């Protein structure tokens, strides 16, 4: 009887402990939801304020006119074209190198102290302030290599900025592939390259693409490194077109052209005392947020779509 009473007493203590832990779980979940709603509400209020302030400039003329000293005539043409060209260089310089580096570190690199050192540095570089990349680019690309204050310099700078993000996201996507996929491929006689290219890369493509798009969306809104390398705050012309009507139909003069981007143009308008320029800046900020949200939403949708079609 005493043993039975002891068991019942212990059972009551266990039940009380489980009840207490469930209550703590509920409180933690409620606190997390409250913090999430607070962040989302703050973002929505700020976004709504930008839309309300910049609504008068939500028209096609704002996107097709050059900046002007008169706020009513000022547009965003040179800024969004410059952003598009800079993002093109950023993508071409960072994505192939980042994906290849991630594949090498995860599939080919030997497991030793040197590889561990590289992995630690890559992870740390993902958290380095963007202004540091701007200072590095100013010394390396502008002065040592002589690229000047050009689209090429800006694209390479932002490419360095998102390179650790691409590498880390590539490695994480590869790690999510089950080991059984590799073992099955080796079991039927596949080579290392066939396993990596036909199976590992194919199945991790969705995660890699998500990391690339998120990195590009971060680069789109960066201002500090672009200011550091000397981007123009007022520019009333477009760079030369990358495509020509004569053979070889490609023109690379635009890489050495002066430029501005949307965050810089927004910063320039905010620095003006005239309230009409602040309306232009609000419209630009709303446009940047919309493009960023579309890129991130597209990344989530693509990842879901790709993973849905994968048959393990």
From TrEMBL:
Its chief place of residence is: membrane
Q: Name one Pfam family in it.
A: BPD_transp_1
PROSITE patterns found in the cross-reference section: ABC_TM1
User: What family does this chain come from, according to its entry?
Assistant: Belongs to the binding-protein-dependent transport system permease family. CysTW subfamily.
Q: Where is the ABC transmembrane type-1 domain?
A: 80-299
Show the stretches that span the lipid bilayer. 27-51, 77-105, 125-145, 151-168, 219-238, 277-302
Q: What is this protein called?
A: Phosphate transport system permease protein PstA
Q: Key word Membrane present in the record?
A: yes
Q: Where in the cell is it found?
A: Cell inner membrane; Cell membrane
- Topology in the lipid bilayer: Multi-pass membrane protein
Entry keywords, A to Z: Cell membrane, Membrane, Transmembrane, Transmembrane helix, Transport
